[in-house]
Write a structure and sequence with these properties.
Layout: E1 8-10, E2 16-26, E3 35-43, E4 48-52, E5 56-60, E6 63-66, E7 70-72, E8 82-84, H1 85-89, E9 93-96, E10 99-110, E11 116-125, E12 136-140, H2 149-154, H3 160-167, H4 171-179, H5 183-192, H6 195-203, H7 207-216, H8 219-228, H9 231-239, H10 243-252, H11 255-265, H12 272-275, E13 282-283, H13 289-296, E14 308-312, E15 323-328, H14 329-334, H15 358-368, E16 372-376, E17 382-387, H16 388-395, E18 412-414
Parallel strand pairs: 1-6, 13-14
Antiparallel strand pairs: 1-2, 2-3, 2-8, 3-4, 5-6, 7-18, 9-10, 10-11, 11-12, 14-15, 16-17
């Protein structure tokens, strides 16, 4: 069933509907295999809906196909007697005889009555060491103890195997998946993630979820996560905390990491200074085209930030020496690698002042057809750069990350 994660969901005519996020099962009081009630499907709008298994006509490696009919578009809400296979059952610590094992996967099989049941479970003995993992065993459901509602919602689960499922997803998709997990499970997954990955995921969460996860972490790790985040995202998150919490976490951060965040906190978040990142690509005028191309090839730099290279007098760290102009990536690709960036600098592109309003920033991007723009102070020092994605974050309505289609009982998805 782990293979179902992110599998496409299609209508009878092959039209794309969404992707599988999880499978909902109803656990029983007896030892009989539980029935799969349906799948959680994420639509293109990121809304999660429930599709009953009776609507599923086929499950193939290429996707899940639904029968003709309508689907209720109400947002999925988990009921007390329901369990999410990927979110709660995977990695659960259970027992087989006298042995403690961990659930690695589960198999869903159809019955003669067209129901689907969780008939078999793949488990691995717990050794406490990743380097000495035991073999995987595939057992019948009734051979395992500890997969009841109470056990799955109260006992601590190992999140390592679930992280393997998340590892192939983008940070924004992992963030969406975390929001649908029970709070206890969400914290376990966050605890198991490395700092860089968790920082990427937190950046994609709504503000309330960001604060919730940050408050769950101890102060030392919370400071490490803030250091791993982009400075502008870290500043936005810290600005939502109380002054006491903000100051405490800033003090725990390394000085070289906290300094750009402190500078960003001086600006209102709806100004160019509050929107910018203080870590654009900056080169001296005597750098070559080859050096500039090497910098924009860095996979850790977003495509928007890589679209412009800023040329400044030393020092190159923001706030820089005198700002000379910028070079567009298209221009870099057309010039000999041995030439200097000084010879291809665009000196005509206007720049933004840090106190420019959100409306002024929006007009600037629209007027010059940009996905990245410079922020320069009155003394011609480059302070940072604004990217189109950061601008969109502030232009979209509040709560856009968690919102999907509007709630309406009469909405239908015709397939």
């Amino acid at each position: 069933m782990a293979q179902l994660a992110r599998l496409g969901v299609f209508g009878p005519d092959g039209e794309s509907i969404g992707r599988v996020r999880d499978v909902v099962v109803g656990l029983r009081l007896d030892r009989q295999p539980p029935k799969a009630l349906g799948i959680v499907v994420e639509l293109a709008t990121r809304r999660r809906i429930f599709v009953p298994m009776l609507r599923v006509t086929s499950i193939e490696p290429t996707g899940v196909t639904l029968a003709t009919g309508s689907v209720n578009l109400r947002a999925f809400h988990q009921r007390p007697n329901e369990v999410l296979v990927l979110g709660q059952m995977l990695d659960a610590r259970v027992t087989v005889g006298d042995s403690d094992v961990v659930v690695m996967d589960a198999a869903m099989e159809p019955t003669r009555t067209r129901d689907w049941v969780i008939a078999r479970v793949a488990v691995r003995e717990r050794t406490g060491r990743l380097s000495r993992r035991g073999p995987v065993q595939v057992l019948r459901w009734d051979e395992i103890s500890g997969l009841g509602i109470a056990e799955l919602t109260e006992t601590r689960q190992d999140a390592r195997a679930l992280l393997v499922v998340y590892d192939r997803l983008r940070a924004t998709d992992v963030a969406a998946a975390l929001r649908d997990l029970p709070a206890k499970r969400r914290y376990e997954v966050a605890d198991a993630m490395d700092d860089e990955r968790l920082a990427d995921v937190i950046e994609e969460l709504p503000e309330e979820d960001q604060k919730d996860l940050l408050s769950h972490l101890d102060d030392e790790r919370a400071a490490d996560i803030l250091e791993a985040m982009d400075p502008d995202d870290a500043a936005d998150l810290l600005a939502e905390l109380s002054e006491v919490d903000k100051d405490r976490l800033l003090e725990l951060m390394e000085p070289e990491e906290s300094e750009p965040v402190r500078r960003l906190l001086e600006y209102s978040k709806d100004t160019a200074g509050g929107l910018m990142t203080p870590e654009p690509i900056v080169l001296a005028p005597d750098a070559t085209i080859a050096e500039a191309l090497a910098r924009v090839r860095n996979p850790d730099i977003t495509p928007a930030l890589a679209s412009l290279v800023f040329v400044c007098r030393p020092p190159s760290a923001t706030p820089t020496g005198r700002y000379l102009g910028c070079v567009h990536i298209q221009r870099l690709l057309r010039e000999p690698p041995s030439d200097l960036v000084a010879g291809v600098v665009d000196t005509q592109l206007a720049s933004l002042r840090p106190n420019a309003t959100l409306t002024e920033v929006t007009r600037f991007f629209a007027a010059y057809n940009l996905v990245c723009g410079p922020v320069v102070d009155d003394e011609d020092h480059l302070l940072g750069a604004i990217t189109g994605d950061d601008l969109l974050d502030h232009l979209l309505p509040e709560g856009w990350r968690e919102s999907g289609l509007r709630e309406a009982g009469g909405e239908r998805l015709d397939a």
